[in-house]
Amino acid sequence: MAKKKRSIPQQIFLWVFQIVIVVLFAFVLVYFFGQTRACIGQSMSTTIEGGDAVLLDGLSYKLGNPKRNDVIAFQLNGNREGASSIKRILGVPGETIQIKDGMIYIDGEIYLEKKDYPAMTDAGLAEEPITLGTNQYFVLGDNRNNSEDSRYADVGVVSGKNIEGKVWFVLSPSNHMGLVK
């Protein structure tokens, strides 16, 4: 049985329709998984170095909430004009965070991290217990003694509405490329 040949207008419509589908798919892919940010400073060393370009996953937090140990990009105090900050979430809504003798306490219990970070020499605001409200997160840089994070008033706790996405991949430089853990 021979295929029925489509008319020229049908062929053009089909061709345009396929292009539109591919462009929409590419847009969704880039919008949700391909936004880039640059890490400024050394606060996330050795996980992410200053100057590294990273990719954000913007979809995860539209479907669910950030979790402890997620590395996030956020707007500092909601300032949409400034550069994004990149830090690791340590405290989630409803928890009480405190730092004593260089150790992190969550709800009065010592939190033992999976990675080996140096003991913090400055507890900052977290010397006293900080109770996180609804949609508030306590963040720290991985380079704990060289990071301006939730321990300091300039950053403070991060509102969920200021979180841009989860950092999931280091894009460049090529010698540091890979998934973020």
UniProtKB/TrEMBL annotation:
Chief subcellular location: membrane
Any GO CC annotation of this UniProt entry: plasma membrane
Reactions listed under catalytic activity: Cleavage of hydrophobic, N-terminal signal or leader sequences from secreted and periplasmic proteins
GO BP, one annotated term: signal peptide processing
GO molecular function terms attached to this record: serine-type endopeptidase activity; signal peptidase activity
Compartment(s) of residence: Cell membrane; Membrane
Superkingdom of origin organism: Bacteria
Listed transmembrane segments: 12-34
Membrane topology: Single-pass type II membrane protein
Keywords assigned by UniProt, alphabetized: Hydrolase, Membrane, Protease, Transmembrane, Transmembrane helix
All copies of domain Peptidase S26, residue ranges: 15-170
Active site annotation, chain numbering: S43, K87
Record-listed E.C. numbers: 3.4.21.89
Segment forming the signal sequence: none
Family: Belongs to the peptidase S26 family.
Protein name according to UniProt: Signal peptidase I
